[in-house]
Every structure is written in structure tokens, then in C-alpha cells.
Design brief:
alpha/beta, 2 domains, globular, binds ligand KE4
């Protein structure tokens, strides 16, 4: 398949945009070649500027739980457009979205809408520090919570893909207040609280990791994290930007029956438009301005278009809880087609094929993957019309728009591509 127009566009893009992309992972540095410039999407399909058609397993990196251009999402956006694009003033639909989030995620007693996952995690950390009076926060190696200065420390996603140790430009004082620990290691967490007793504001975690590839919590891990943070009066923040409404209609916290103190959401709650949220315990979130002294603001926070799309998405989830069984079954078939020398991690409709024979339970084991073989697999799948995340350290996503025929075709393409990549 030709990709010459994409190549031309990529060269032109580099003249005006750093690296030719508006987010690093899109540059395909992790797999080689050049990114395909997309003309349009529809359902489970993407169409690039060379008129190639792909079955899409990125889904805009998670938001498109219902696929591209779902009619209910489009109708909601078009309806919002008849009333305007942004008012910089409160609207009734913002209340309805906050109420709907609270219905689906009971731990979200108060909800603040923002515009990106990064804003949500940055704000949640500030609230945690302001509420507890402590400065130190704990994150986990390989977890990515957006490009927040203090969290770009052994981060996953694009940082993992690009091999950026700790990003330049982050003042040492910022990263000095961040402790990074191995994921799925209770002893390391316990020890950190002994070493820094009484100084830790919060632990922030991807309850199911997606940014070093998909890595589920070990049995009992999240329960131990909840018990340790409660015992030491530190806050537990679930970063559900990726898992929220993806792994269940109540996110990972419902799946694992854990009640965090604060949570962040994004991606799915915008239905493809820029929106995110943070929130949690009423006593904590009451500290957020203007009800309290902790400042956080945003010109386009809660804007009508994104709120309309998000509300349509969540209302669809409420009306059709059966979609999670459908997503589970479809993704399970993709997981099952991997050969023995490929490790598969999957929770619901987020999954990663790791090119390693060892179990992948944390950043160190994820990094044992053969990224060159993953690159071969990626391009072999692309040639067969299957569009995967361009990095070993990302999760793929299945949507309700993926038909049984799509999955059948993907399984066939995967079997051929595994053979090529593993020869
Ligand atoms: P955004 O600022 O990109 O909306 O969200 C940051 C973020 C926060 N928390 C989690 C768990 C996330 O996965 C993300 C963003 N995820 C990446 C994909 N691995 C976004 C893709 C990109 O950076 O282009």
C-alpha cells in the first residue's frame, strides 16, 4: 500500500510543528517509518491520505469506546452547536455531566471538569498537597499521568517509547518531591512510607497500567495500597484517565471494588472531544476554589460541545451496560491468538501483546520486550490493514464498532504477522 502522501505531509509538518506531530507518540519513533496522516474515521475504520483503509485499534488513544462518529455523539455535538460553542459561564449540562459521573462512580462526591488528563492529574496532586499539607507524592515506574512537571519522572507512554529518562526542563525541586516505586511491589510502597513517614501527601496510580503496555494490578495489590495510604493518612489517587468507563461502567475502582480518595478521568468521558475531570471526597474537593483556597481554573472547562459529547457517551454506557460483555469477548479473541512466545496482558478492552516470553508485571519486565520484533509486527499488521498503537509500551483499544468480521480479520492478520515478526 502506498503511503507517499503521508510521507510528503510528514516532511511538510516538520517545518511548522516540532517533530511533525502534536503529541510525540504519534511520530512512530517506536516502530520506525512515518505516521499515516488521517483523512477521516468511521465506525471501526480509519482512512488515510493515500486512501488506505485500516481497522483502528488506537481509537484516539482510548476515547472512542463507541468507534468513530457514533450517531449519538454527533447528534449531541450538533445540538450543542445550535446553542453556541463556549460561554465562560455555567450551564445546566455541566451539572448533568457531573451528576452522571457521580452516578457511575460513587467515590466522585464532587467533580471538577477540565480539558485534558494532564490538567486533571496536575490539579488532583495540587489538591492532595493542599489538603494534607505535605509535599511528597508517590508514582510508579512506567506509569504516565500526563506531562505534569513533577510526574515526568520515569514516566511511561511517549517517555517510555522515546527513552527519555526524566524530561529536561523539569526543575530538580519538582522531581525531588516525587518518589517513583516499582509497580506491583507492596514492600517497596510500605518501605517508602517508613522512610518518609508523615511527609507523603498522596500516591497516584494507574489502577490498570496502560502506559508501559497493559499491566494489571497483582491480586491484592490495590487493596494493600488502599490500606497503607489510609493507615498513613495519605491520599490515594486513582488515575482513571484511561481505565475510566473503559474497563467497566464504573472504571477500575468498580472492577476492583476500591474506593480512592480522589480520581481523575478523561478520554472516554469526552467521546473524542477535549474534556477530563478530577474529583472525589467532598471534604477534600471542598478545598478547591472558589469553595476553598486551592486554585484551579480553565477558560474552556466544561465547554458545551465537549460536555454534550461526554454526556451522550455516558448516557449510552448507562443505557447499554451489555457493551462491556461485548468488548470483553471481542478483545479476548485478540488475546487468544497470540503464540506461546508472546506475553499477553488484557483487562476488558485494553490489551498489549508483549514480545517477551516472561510475565510482564512492572516496568522492568516490560522493558525486556523485543521492540524491534514489535516494530516488525506493527508494520506487518499495517500492511494487512490493521492500525495498532505505534509502540510496544502502549495498550490497544477495542470499540463497540469493531464487528465480529473485524475481529476475525484481525486474528488472521495477527497470525501471519506474528510469524513474520518471530521468524
Ligand atoms: P492527556 O493530557 O493526554 O489528555 O492525558 C494524560 C494521561 C493521564 N493519565 C493516563 C493514565 C493517560 O493514559 C494519559 C494519556 N495517555 C496517552 C496514551 N498512552 C495519550 C497519548 C498521547 O500522549 O498522545
Amino acid at each position: 500500500m502506498s503511503a507517499e502522501r503521508s510521507r510528503e505531509l510528514f516532511e511538510r509538518a516538520k517545518l511548522s510543528i516540532p517533530g511533525g506531530v502534536n503529541s510525540p507518540v504519534r511520530a512512530w519513533r517506536g516502530v520506525g517509518g512515518w505516521p499515516r496522516f488521517i483523512k477521516r474515521g468511521q465506525g471501526s475504520r480509519l482512512f488515510d491520505e493515500d486512501d488506505n483503509e485500516y481497522i483502528d485499534y488506537i481509537g484516539s488513544w482510548g476515547p472512542l469506546l463507541l468507534g468513530h462518529r457514533h450517531p449519538e455523539i454527533l447528534d449531541a455535538i450538533n445540538e450543542a452547536l445550535t446553542r453556541g460553542t463556549s460561554f465562560g459561564a455555567p450551564t445546566e449540562l455541566e451539572i448533568e455531566l457531573a451528576e452522571t459521573i457521580r452516578e457511575l462512580v460513587p467515590s466522585m462526591e464532587l467533580v471538577r471538569l477540565v480539558n485534558s488528563g494532564t490538567e486533571a492529574t496536575m490539579s488532583a496532586l495540587r489538591v492532595a498537597r493542599g489538603f494534607t499539607g505535605h509535599d511528597i507524592t508517590i508514582k510508579f515506574e512506567g506509569c504516565y499521568h500526563g506531562h505534569v512537571d513533577s510526574l515526568l519522572v520515569k514516566a511511561g507512554s511517549g517517555v517510555a517509547t522515546l527513552g527519555l529518562p526524566d524530561s529536561p526542563g523539569v526543575p530538580k525541586g519538582f522531581s525531588d518531591t516525587t518518589i517513583t516505586l516499582p509497580y506491583n511491589n507492596v514492600d517497596a510502597l510500605e518501605q517508602a512510607f517508613v522512610t518518609h513517614a508523615g511527609k507523603i501527601a498522596a500516591v497516584i496510580v494507574e489502577p490498570v497500567c496502560g502506559n508501559m503496555g497493559c499491566i494489571p494490578p497483582a491480586p491484592g495489590y490495590l487493596e494493600a495500597m488502599r490500606e497503607i495510604t489510609a493507615r498513613h493518612n495519605a491520599l490515594l489517587i486513582f488515575d482513571e484517565v484511561m481505565t475510566g468507563f473503559r474497563v467497566s461502567s464504573g472504571g477500575a475502582q468498580r472492577l476492583y471494588n476500591i474506593k480512592p480518595d480522589l480520581s481523575t478521568f478523561g478520554k472516554v468521558i469526552g467521546g473524542g472531544l477535549p474534556i477530563a475531570a478530577y474529583g472525589g471526597r467532598h471534604d477534600i474537593m471542598s478545598f478547591v476554589a472558589p469553595s476553598g483556597p486551592i486554585y484551579q481554573a480553565g477558560t474552556l472547562s466544561g465547554n458545551p460541545l465537549a460536555v454534550g459529547a461526554g454526556l451522550a457517551m455516558l448516557r449510552h454506557i448507562q443505557a447499554h451496560p451489555e457493551i462491556y460483555d461485548q468488548l470483553n469477548e471481542a478483545t479476548g479473541r485478540l488475546a487468544a491468538c497470540a503464540p506461546e512466545n508472546v506475553t499477553v496482558n488484557r483487562i476488558g478492552s485494553m490489551m498489549t501483546w508483549f514480545f517477551t516470553t516472561t510475565p510482564v508485571t512492572d516496568y522492568d519486565s516490560a522493558k525486556l520486550s523485543d521492540t524491534a520484533r514489535f516494530g516488525k509486527f506493527f508494520h506487518a499488521m499495517l500492511e494487512r490493514g490493521i492500525y495498532l498503537p505505534p509502540s510496544q509500551y502502549e495498550a490497544l483499544f477495542v470499540s463497540t464498532a469493531h464487528s465480529e468480521a473485524d475481529i476475525d480479520r484481525t486474528v488472521e492478520a495477527a497470525k501471519e504477522s506474528f510469524a513474520i515478526a518471530l521468524e
